[in-house]
Amino acid sequence: MVRSPSGGSIPDVMREAQLGFFDTSCIEWAERGFPTDFVLWFAFESSAEVSDAAIVDQLQQRVEASPVLNRRLCRTPRHLDNPYWVYGIDEVGPLISVSPETGLSWDEVRMRIVDLLDDPLDLAVAPLRMRVYRNVTGLGPLADVVTVTMSHALMSGRSTGPLGEYLFAPRLLRWRIDGLPSAAVVFRPWRAAVRSARMVAQMSTAMVRTRRRRRRVRQGEVAAARAIVRPQWWAADFWGDGPRQVLETRQIPVPPKGEFRVTELWIAAISQALARFHADAGQSAEISVSVPVLVPFEDDMGANNVLLAQIPVDTAEGGQIDRLAKIRDELRKSRADLASADTAEVTKTAAGMPYLLQRRSIRKLPRHPRADVFVSSMSFRSDLDLQLAGQPWIAGGPLPSPRVAALSIIVWTFGDVIQLMVAAKPLEADAVRRLADMFVEEFDRVVAACAAEPQRG
Fold first, then answer.
1. Which of 87, 210, 333, 439 is 20 to 30 A from 136 (CA-CA)?
2. Contact by Cβ (8 Å): 115, 425
3. Angstrom distance (rounded) from CA 48 to CA 275
């Protein structure tokens, strides 16, 4: 019998390679026509002395050397059990291409980055795809821009910084993702069919856990799950139902450390900018922002152990510091709720759901759930000088799927620079550009208000 590196049999290997329930949901939505792939872009100073082949060679070597990236997806017969990661992309070279268009402007490259999301990945081939644009103008010096289309089933946004460090460090590094299953070296479909008999045990276990939880809720031993009653945001159609996706980027220096975290500062700034943008509509100034929160349930959820917190912000009430304090309190409360033992119990029950039942549940939904305003704030610092074939790093960041939210804002802090990315499908062509400028203005005001206010205990 073939054995795993840990000495286990093939069924053990498959169990170690199976995707978690949240990761499999990304795959099911893609099959429904709602892929959740995202794109990362990385820019480097361009040099005429560096050839296309040298760039492709570095990227190909890093993909081939990584157990995280060098994998593909296999299905069990008739989808009886969760899909598995299998080690080894057949050919890495065709996944990396250099655009024949050179000398494009950053505006033109941004449009091409957005268009990459219209070409979903085939995970049976690979979980990523790369494209290089050379001699791009508008980023300061001439730049070579590398785009990486990445499957959300493989990683969440929190891994984008470490991914950039792995691909572009001056030397080969080891890199892993918490919650990401190992890739099986050997895969036997008939053994997967045998292992899918656990579906019966999963179903009975999930039913028992659900009944126990309902009984405990009735008896008052645990709190019932809080239903998030979110009224339809009147501006969601404006930002989500336009003719095409638009991306705007801005660079801002990291503010000095103070009483409030960067995420809290940006939630306040974003809400205030939206209130300004839509002031002539005479609508309510209360805006709810969806913020991803990392939870310690990767064993059950997989690599995407992230849940959404709904943060309300009333821009018409109180002063700047008071609003920030309320945002901080709401975030702390949401993080505590989402990481609680009660949520862990719900997560474990969902993880025990048979795969066929999960597929059936997703296929009953008319469309992928879409938040109104999605704000993701990530921070990463590397001690290495990142480079592409010897060319130094300039900037970078991720772009989420347009299906995540009507309006997506990514705050990507890498070292001492914040890369702000704003993406939407607006009804007005220049709306995203104007809103991104407002975000920066309001962020500067929020930072200035904090600097002028003495820190409280």
1. 439
2. no
3. 46
Range among 260-264, 277-281, 289-293, 399-403 rated most confident: 260-264
434 CB-contact burial (10 Å; exposed 0-12 / middle 13-18 / buried 19+): middle
SS3 of 406, please? Answer: strand
Query: Is there a contact between 409 and 246 (Cβ–Cβ < 8 Å)?
Result: no
* 3-state secondary structure (DSSP) of residue 380: strand
Bridge-based pairing of strands 84-87 and 71-74 is: antiparallel
- Tokens 């008999």, residue? 197
Same fold, 10-195 and 230-393+401-452: yes
Q: Which of 17, 55, 59, 449 is nearest to 258 (CA)?
A: 449
- Residues 223 and 342: beta-carbon distance below 8 Å: yes
Q: What DSSP line would sit under 206-243, residue for residue?
A: HHHHHHHHHHHHHTTSSPPPPP---PPPTTHHHHHSSS
Structure-token pair, residue 451: 């600097």
Is the model's pLDDT at 161 over the cut of 70?
Answer: yes
Q: Which of 204-213, 347-356, 365-374 has the highest mean pLDDT?
A: 365-374
The predicted-structure confidence for 55-88, as pLDDT tens digits, reads as follows 999 999 999 999 999 999 988 777 777 888 999 9
pLDDT tier at 434, thresholds 50, 70, 90: very high
**Pairing mode of beta strands 405-414, 417-424:** antiparallel
Q: How far apart are CA 350 and CA 354, in angstroms?
A: 9
Domain layout of the chain by residue ranges = 10-195, 230-393+401-452
Residues 6+ apart with CB under 8 A from 317: 323
DSSP, res 340: S
CATH of 230-393+401-452, one of 3.30.559, 3.30.450, 3.40.30, 1.10.10: 3.30.559
Q: Are 134 and 389 in contact (CB under 8 A)?
A: no
Closest Cα to residue 113, out of 240, 225, 244? 244
CATH number for the 10-195 domain, one of 3.30.559.10, 3.90.550.10, 3.40.50.300, 3.20.20.140? 3.30.559.10
Confidence of residue 317 (pLDDT cuts 50, 70, 90): confident
Q: How confident is the model at residue 395 (pLDDT cuts 50, 70, 90)?
A: very high
Tens of pLDDT along 216-251? 555 565 555 444 445 567 788 899 999 999 999 999
Quick one: which H or E segment has residue 29? helix 21-31
Range with lowest mean pLDDT among 7-11, 267-271, 420-424: 7-11
Phi, psi at residue 288, to the nearest 5°?
Answer: -105, 135
> What is the rounded distance in angstroms from the CA atom of residue 197 to the CA atom of residue 354?
10
